[in-house]
Amino acid sequence: MKIGIIGAGNIGATLTRRLRALGHEVSVANSRGPETLQALADETGARAVTAREAAAAGEIVVLTIPQARVPDLPGDLFAGVPADVVVVDTGNYYPRQRDGRIEGIEQGAAESRWVSNQIGRPVIKAFNNIYADHLMKMGREPGALDRIALPVAGDDPNAKAAVLKLVAELGFDGVDAGTLDESWKQQPGSPVYCTDGSLERVQQGLLDAQRERKPEWRGTEHSPGTFDQPR
Ligand SMILES: NC(=O)c1ccc[n+]([C@@H]2O[C@H](COP(=O)([O-])OP(=O)(O)OC[C@H]3O[C@@H](n4cnc5c(N)ncnc54)[C@H](OP(=O)(O)O)[C@@H]3O)[C@@H](O)[C@H]2O)c1
Number of folded domains in the chain? Predict the structure, then answer.
């Protein structure tokens, strides 16, 4: 499968490595330009490209950049990209540590709904609730006792099915977590957030999730601080 990846940090580089190892054709981009991604390209056999090229290179395009950087993307990034190309958002809102206050999210939009509105494209939310290191190392065969389940949310059933298939290829049980507007159930602070749950635990965690954003996941007038000193 042809896969574009926009963002080559913890998650983007991990997905590049794992998806290349599975034999997918990966085109990966960051903000500084392809020449800064040569080492990752040499290591994995991925193509280092611009963000525009990554957006146009895939049957699936993964957007994996900090939430606060989403408005920096070109407004026409996906212009001309066919509607059946699936865009995956791995993002999480860390207002106090990294992103600063984002009013649309503070007012109640699901984080990936806000991203979708920003980029003018439907998205599927996936891979947001697992640490990059676990995404790298903890894929398992179906039926393994320690197999982790990952929620996948979005509105288009075909797009969601394509991402659930990719999740399974990577060694995780995919769980249909509902629509994009319900994707708050897998956001930071939810029971399924970075807890490496089994299929049953993730299904139950999605049922137990509470909509209200907890104070520690809200921005303040002083946000952002840092991961060491959130504000
Ligand atoms: N870290 C985790 O374990 C983890 C787990 C699940 C989900 N997430 C979420 O996934 C997202 C990415 O996290 P991360 O930890 O991988 O981030 P990261 O390590 O900070 O990497 C961010 C990447 O995004 C690129 N980027 C930023 N602005 C861009 C732009 N305008 N155009 C193209 N590329 C751009 C950066 O490129 P440059 O370096 O060139 O600026 C960098 O390659 C975040 O929302 C995060 O909360 C993270």
Answer: 1
Kindly list the distances between the CA atom of residue 204 and the CA atoms of 62, 76, 186, 197, in Å, as whole numbers in the listed order.
Answer: 27, 39, 12, 10
Q: Computed from CA positions of residues 139, 149, 7, 1, in that sequence, does the dihedral angle turn out positive or negative?
A: positive
CATH code at position 209: 3.40.50.720
Longest CA–CA span in the chain (Å) reads 47
User: How far is it, in rounded angstroms, from Cα 175 to Cα 173?
Assistant: 6
Q: What is the pLDDT of residues 109-132, one digit of tens each?
A: 999 999 999 999 999 999 999 999
Query: 73 CB under 6 A from ligand 1?
Result: yes
pLDDT confidence of residue 33: 98
Strands of the sheet with 47-48, listed across from one edge: 47-48, 25-29, 2-6, 60-63, 86-89, 124-125
Q: Is there an atom of ligand 1 within 6 Å of 221 CB?
A: no
Containing structural domain, residue 200: 66-216
Whether the full predicted model's pTM is greater than 0.85, yes or no, is yes
Let me know if residue 12 belongs to a domain: no
Considering the chain, what is the average pLDDT of its residues?
Answer: 98
Given a contact cutoff of 8 angstroms between Cβ atoms, the answer to whether 109 and 117 are in contact is yes
Q: Show Cβ contacts of residue 81 under 8 Å, excluding neighbours closer than 6 positions.
A: 55, 56, 61, 121
CA–centroid distance, 153 to ligand 1, in Å, is 20
Mutate to test the pocket of ligand 1, among 10, 37, 98, 128 (most ligand atoms within 8 A of CB): 10
Residue pLDDT, tens place only, 6-36: 999 999 999 999 999 999 999 999 999 999 9
